[in-house]
Amino acid sequence: MQHFKTLSAYLDYLELPRPEHPMLSVFSAIGEGTLPCPKESSPPITNDCYSISLKKMVKGDLNYGRTKYDFTNGALFFIAPRQVLQWDSSMVFDQKGFSINFHEDFLKGTELAQQIKRYGFFSYSANEALHLSPREEKQIESIVESIDLEYRNNQDEFSKDIIISQLSTLLKYANRFYERQFITRKALSNDLLEQFNQQLENYFRSGQLEEKGIPSIEQIADQLSVSQRYLSDTLKKETGKTTTEHLQLFLINEAKEILLNPNKTISEVAYELGFEYPPYFSRLFKKKEGISPSAYRKKYKMN
């Protein structure tokens, strides 16, 4: 897989104009003008750059990791360094919007270098893109216009600090708008929790839990066609519990049912639930329920 270590090499590959700054490029067509179009297709590639882009009325899908961004309604999307990108000739890029690309080293020595790692939307995918309202879009575009102006003026010793500050503001607004999206898409979030539980139910009933062990959160997210980070953020926002807590809750509820069968040992119950080590199951059960599995069985045993 081809990897691009510099911004210039990455833009050359995309067949886009060389940047004004060796570690930063800004393409903007918010008002007049049009965006330059990248090469029409690409096999999987990676690079050391961050990208923030707004695309409108775009046809086709862009593969980001193992999932796809759908731009048919327009979206603000974020790409992190070393994420796998791929697209084909069916992808039609609109000529309005903006694209900001910057090498990760551009942030070195700044507070944003650490802050940006905490923004989960850089690891989001597919239907998790940020869909802006008209008012939100204007706010983001206003910030981008300021960045573009500073980028194209004669850069001096203050330019980088000013651009970093504006990038930080842009990302803070994006974080706020994502919070809004989580709230306004509450029905989808609830549906995601139902799908999460149903996926675990199917896994358990098919015998895979005992045969293959407890699935990872990443495996479950893949089955639901969302990223692990988005699944975690959504469930945490709506329920106050993490994906791991929901998984443990499911296992403990199933354990309660199985423990009522007096013919199964505690170890057999643990193995049936996918635990490789029965003592771990017993510790988790006691931590969640306040009593050991054997004590629970004794308390609720069937007469």
The tally of structural domains comes to: 2
Topology, number of strands: 9
Helix content: 40-55%
Silhouette: elongated
Pick out the low-confidence regions. none
The CATH class name of the largest domain reads Mainly Beta
How many DSSP H or I helices? 12
If strands are numbered along the chain, what order do they take across the biggest sheet? 1-3-8-5-6
The overall pLDDT average reads: 83
Give the full name of the CATH homologous superfamily of the largest domain: Regulatory protein AraC
CATH architecture label of the largest domain: Sandwich
Q: How large, in whole angstroms, is the Cα Rg?
A: 24 Å
Strand-residue proportion? 5-15%
Describe this structure in words.
This protein is of the alpha+beta class and 303 residues long. It folds into two domains: 2-184, Regulatory protein AraC (Jelly Rolls); 188-300, Orthogonal Bundle (Arc Repressor Mutant, subunit A). The chain contains twelve helices and nine strands. The chain has helices at 7-14, 112-115, 134-152, 159-184, 186-205, 208-212, 217-223, 228-239, 243-259, 266-272, 278-289, 293-300; strands spanning 2-4, 24-29, 42-47, 49-55, 61-64, 67-70, 75-79, 85-87, 97-103. A five-stranded mixed sheet has the order 1-3-8-5-6. A four-stranded antiparallel sheet has the order 2-9-4-7, covered by helices on one side. Helix 5 (186-205) packs across helix 8 and helix 9 (243-259) crosses helix 11. The longest helix has 26 residues, at 159-184. The protein is elongated and about 80 Å long. The mean pLDDT is 83.
